Amino acid sequence: MPKIKPVNVGLIGAGRIGSFHGETVVRRLVDAELVAVADPAPGAAAKLADKLSVDASYTDVADLLAHPGLDAVIIATPARFHANILVQAVEAGKAIFCEKPMALTLEDADRAIAAARVAGVPLQVGFNRRWDQAFAEGRAAIDAGKIGAPQLIRSLTRDPGPFGADPDKIPLWTIFYETLIHDFDTLLWLNPGAKPIEVFAMADALVRPDAKGKGFLDTAVVNIRFDNGSVAVAEANFCAMYGYDIRGEVFGSGGMVTMGDVRRSSMTLFDKDGVSNDTWRRDTDHFVQGYTAQLASFVSSVRTGELKDAPTGSDARNALALALACIESVSKKQPVIVE
Ligand SMILES: NC(=O)c1ccc[n+]([C@@H]2O[C@H](COP(=O)([O-])OP(=O)(O)OC[C@H]3O[C@@H](n4cnc5c(N)ncnc54)[C@H](O)[C@@H]3O)[C@@H](O)[C@H]2O)c1
After folding, report:
1. Which one of 7, 245, 334, 336 is CB 3.0 to 4.6 Å from 32, fit for a cystine?
2. Are 150 and 190 in contact (CB under 8 A)?
3. Is residue 2's pLDDT more than 90?
4. Does ligand 1 have an atom closer than 6 angstroms to the CB of 178?
């Protein structure tokens, strides 16, 4: 049988998640090839390219986009660069996988969505939880009517402690733009067709109270009211000392689904100290299956030219609108109506 031609992927941003995505393309996907890496930090692209046996590395995105035969790009730069690079890549005719958040303003989100529409290229955003088996099965149960109409919905992100980052290096409002954005997408996705109408967010610096004066926030709780009557809660904290804890729950008129487990596996140790489990410590361990499945789905969309059951630019915009509403709510210390 003739071998299927691989989809040629370029990686933009060779940092923490970009390196992991690059490794996924090289080691975990069978029908895609990583052909080039770009990163402006001296040596970063070359180092990753060398590690993954990729021939081409660039410090300039334009050079990567001109790489012969390139079909698609993965954008894994810091968030503030996403929209411009996305538009640049779309205008070069490349299919886009963009890490979250796709943009930091609704204007940039609209610009990115419009550019992809005009170019006719797939635009997928990195809301990987949708591919986690438990979350995917939860959504399937909701679609099958097994829990009736959603009434109470919950999603949480607790990043693993100890918290070692420098708060001064974390952009303002990151907890909403980059952390809870996953939960916003999850809540919207688990409540199909419902539109958020009101948001009330509270946030604080409980992990690093010393940094609060500069606007740093590491803990937040968000209430969201939807137009189908359901109410959701999203919460986040940057320092769960017991591990990387991601969970979701939908309670409906006919039952409930719960998703996510901080325990690494069902192996439970019984010893002189009692009963214990190891826990997830890193997103790239916990979600390796989901991260791989999202890129496999993306590669298949590059072949067909269309996304199938994947988060789009519009989904990214909807999640961003919630993040922006949260920022307004925290700033005004009051509930706000969602745009
Ligand atoms: N979906 C997830 O679970 C997940 C997990 C981690 C990070 N992310 C997202 O991925 C993005 C990157 O996060 P990270 O933790 O890998 O950051 P990082 O700081 O580790 O890496 C970013 C890299 O991008 C490079 N870069 C900066 N400007 C660039 C440009 N103009 N062109 C090309 N490369 C450029 C930097 O030199 C750096 O190597 C963020 O938006 C973050 O929210 C998503």
Report:
1. 7
2. yes
3. no
4. yes
Distance CA 72, CA 99 (A): 14
Q: What is the 3-state secondary structure (H, E, C) of the chain?
A: CCCCCCEEEEEECCCHHHHHHHHHHHHHCCCEEEEEEECCCCCHHHHHHHHCCCCEEECCHHHHHCCCCCCEEEECCCHHHHHHHHHHHHHCCCEEEECCCCCCCHHHHHHHHHHHHHHCCCEEECCHHHHCHHHHHHHHHHHCCCCCCEEEEEEEEEEECCCCCCHHHCCCCHHHHHHHHHHHHHHHHCCCCCCEEEEEEEEECCCCHHHHHHCCCCEEEEEEEECCCCEEEEEEEEEECCCCEEEEEEEECCEEEEECCCECCCCCEEECCEEECCECCCHHHHCHHHHHHHHHHHHHHHHHCCCCCCCCHHHHHHHHHHHHHHHHHHHHCCCEECC
Domains 7-127+291-311 and 129-282+318-337 share a fold: no
Mutate which of 77, 87, 246, 287 to test ligand 1's pocket (most atoms within 8 Å of Cβ)?
A: 77
Give the pair of three-digit tokens for residue 262: 């901080």
Domain positions in the chain:
7-127+291-311, 129-282+318-337
* Token output for 206: 């409980």
**Ligand 1 mean position, distance from CA 16 (Å):** 7
Distance from residue 21's CA to the centre of ligand 1 (Å): 11
Reported as a single tens digit per residue, the pLDDT across 103-130 is 999 999 999 999 999 999 999 999 999 9
CATH number of 7-127+291-311: 3.40.50.720
Nearest CA to ligand 1 atom 1: 126
Q: Which fold is adopted by the domain 129-282+318-337?
A: Dihydrodipicolinate Reductase; domain 2 (3.30.360)
What does the alpha-carbon distance between residue 254 and residue 232 come to, in Å, rounded to a whole number?
17
